[in-house]
DNA sequence: CCCAAGACCTGGCGGC
DNA sequence: TGCCGCCAGGTCTTGG
């Protein structure tokens, strides 16, 4: 579920409750996430920072870090320690403040690892591409990556080895913003169109973060509140409705396995 | 190397 | 109400 804006919203929501606090206890009620959860005893460890890389969250200790992914249906919330746990509340990190960070994830596609060494060397992070909001992610970079690829440009945007954090919602939105048809083969993208696409990605993600992310069903930020970008979506979930730019009915289709929506008139 | 499809899970929804 | 099939924000793995 969560794409970069939702993960970033979560990070900002929980960080104030975590940074400078110590872990009092870790309670793992369900180890069967994407990979089996195996954590060392973290009691007494101080959380120095809460960072994000791609769609991963990183809780840094003086030595080591927790690496967490929310998968499709995961969320993190700050609750009072000892708050009753529901069926899908798989992990609690109890803090010395009397609060806990609770990981909830019905589909269990999320993950939680303890990293003893440098996070960037971990196999889950090692091969990741650029952060979309970094200066390095620009038209020249995207153009160079697009050249040899025959996949639809939408796939390229969602390829974490190229650029991270963009999932199905924001890929659809950014392509509409840039006026590019999702099915266009990546290698046919001109350099100027790459520039336009990069700009649209940055604008879309920045706006989504400003609105606290997109809640379709069950996403909540660290404070338990949903995101409000859903009302700002221009194409995702709007197949058959009029394009906000030209009023033509939006087309709903499939690219690979994923739902794709675009405007036949203003996306070429 | 590139690419498409399958796999992993649960829950909500529409249709009958 | 109940059951059934389909769909969902991700991404690793497999096989061609």
Write structural notes for this entry.
With 268 residues, the chain is an alpha+beta fold. It has two domains: 4-121, N-terminal domain of MutM-like DNA repair proteins (Alpha-Beta Barrel); 139-262, Helicase, Ruva Protein, domain 3 (Orthogonal Bundle). The chain is built from five helices and ten strands; from the N terminus they run αββββββββααααββ. A four-stranded antiparallel beta sheet has the order 1-6-7-5, with helices on one face. A four-stranded antiparallel beta sheet has the order 2-3-4-8, with helices on one face. β6 and β7 form a beta hairpin. α2 (139-146) crosses α5 (191-210) and α4 packs across α5. The protein is globular, with a radius of gyration of 19 Å. The two termini are 28 Å apart. The mean pLDDT is 96. The protein binds a DNA duplex (16 and 16 nucleotides) through α4.
Quick overview:
The chain is about 20% helix and about 20% strand. It is α+β, with helices and mostly antiparallel strands and about 270 residues long. Strand 6 and strand 7 (about 100-105) form a beta hairpin.
